[in-house]
Design brief:
406 residues, alpha+beta, Immunoglobulin-like, 2 domains, 6-stranded mixed sheet, 10 helices
């Protein structure tokens, strides 16, 4: 038997229902409404620990909400380069790469630790140099110092300007201070110190004279250490006069971690980039909770840290028109992408070499020959994300390739 409802009760319940729908829509419309932080004329470089992104047993409990918030922040803030730490699921990285694919390309570390590092960059500004992009090799003691998370090196080449330049991005995740005993916390402090020394040796040998930026969760501050206010474990880098844009934030009393008052996420640059850095531009997005309620619990316990560089100085110069015209004439068509079996490449100029790289920089497939139309049988490669580099007589094109199982 149906229950009778008088008109007043019906109207009241209808109003409540409509109010709940309106509130729900309002939450949907206003959630993830992040502001634009990037500049249209500068190079914006950011680092962000995304707290166990994609891991169902650690970090925020609502994985879908966390993923959507991370995706929205990266999309809407319009920063050019994002260095991420704690990307903890290959499938989540793949989904993020696909969702951002119109704007960004990405590269992820291949070490065995669950908390992986990754880099995303704006496709209209950079393309990857695959054979210079890898987790840097470490001996056993240095690997221990880095908590088995070897720094991820991604080498990018500028595109879209009249000058081609390269920049190395190193993404790091230093040992955290998670121990319950004082002895354990001191050991973590020492490991961060040793990792910093190994990093210093690497950039001063392998990357000597090159442009590089080191970004990541350094898990310590730059004035004094979070461990017993000892000298910062990064004193050796500061003494060597490496510029940390994030030191401006330390000096200003800012915090990049939601649950204490320390700056533990940092950006360090090569001395060759000091004149490119826009002094005073370093920022921490510590008001992210103004745009996503409870951000530090449902998205990440870290806030993005970013800085600005002179893009024109990196990518622009006057070159002869004839050279510009020569490169403009080179047109390359790649299809289908995603691909399952056969990949076709067509060009209006002779192609000489095509290489498919894994995301760890290793060559997965290579084809050499002189032709304007190429057919590549790559069905034997495992499904996933790859980097496709095409070399012609005057052209060089690098792009992302997706091999699909369906």
């Amino acid at each position: 038997m149906k229950q009778k409802i008088d008109l007043k009760t019906y109207i009241r319940k209808s109003r409540v229902a409509l109010l709940m729908v309106a509130l729900s829509l309002n939450v949907c419309l206003n959630a993830q409404n992040f502001p634009k932080l990037g500049s249209d004329t500068l190079l914006d470089i950011a680092t962000w620990n995304v707290e166990w992104l994609g891991n169902t047993t650690n970090g925020p409990s609502d994985e879908i909400l966390q993923y959507n918030n991370v995706l929205a922040l990266m999309n809407k803030t319009e920063l050019d380069i994002f260095a991420l730490q704690e990307v903890s699921s290959p499938s989540t990285f793949a989904n993020l790469s696909t969702a951002l694919g119109a704007k960004y390309d990405g590269f992820i570390s291949d070490f065995s630790q669950t908390q992986k590092t990754a880099l995303f960059w704006r496709k209209s500004m950079f393309e990857i140099i695959p054979d210079l992009s890898l987790n840097i090799p470490l001996n056993s003691s240095d690997n221990y110092a880095f908590a088995s998370r070897a720094p991820l090196q991604v080498c990018l080449r500028t595109v879209g300007g009249s000058k081609t330049d390269t920049i190395f991005l190193l993404v790091i995740h230093m040992k955290a201070q998670t121990e319950s005993t004082d002895a354990g916390r001191f050991e973590s402090y020492t490991r961060r110190q040793n990792a910093a020394n190994a990093l210093k040796l690497y950039v001063e040998t392998t990357l000597a004279g090159k442009k590089f930026v080191v970004l990541g969760d350094w898990n310590d501050d730059l004035d004094v250490s979070i461990y017993n206010a000892l000298p910062t474990p990064y004193a050796g880098l500061l003494t060597a006069k490496y510029t940390f844009p994030s030191k401006e934030l330390t000096d200003a009393g800012k915090s990049s971690y939601a649950f204490n008052t320390s700056m533990i996420d940092h950006i360090m640059q090569s001395k060759t980039l000091d004149s490119f850095y826009m002094k005073g531009s370093a920022k921490v997005f510590d008001n992210a909770s103004d745009y996503v309620s409870n951000f530090s619990n449902n998205t990440s316990d870290h806030f993005p840290v970013y800085a600005f560089y002179d893009w024109k100085k990196l990518s622009t110069r006057i070159i002869p028109a004839s050279v510009t015209e020569m490169h403009a004439k080179a047109q390359i068509l790649v299809y289908p992408n995603p691909v399952q079996d056969k990949l076709f490449i067509e060009s209006n100029e002779v192609l000489e070499r095509v290489v498919v790289y894994q995301l760890n920089g290793q060559i997965a497939y290579e084809q050499v020959g002189e032709a304007k139309v190429l057919q590549m049988n790559i069905g034997s490669l495992p499904p996933g994300f790859y980097i496709l580099q095409i070399e012609g007589r005057t052209a060089l094109q690098t792009s992302r390739l997706v091999i699909s199982s369906e």
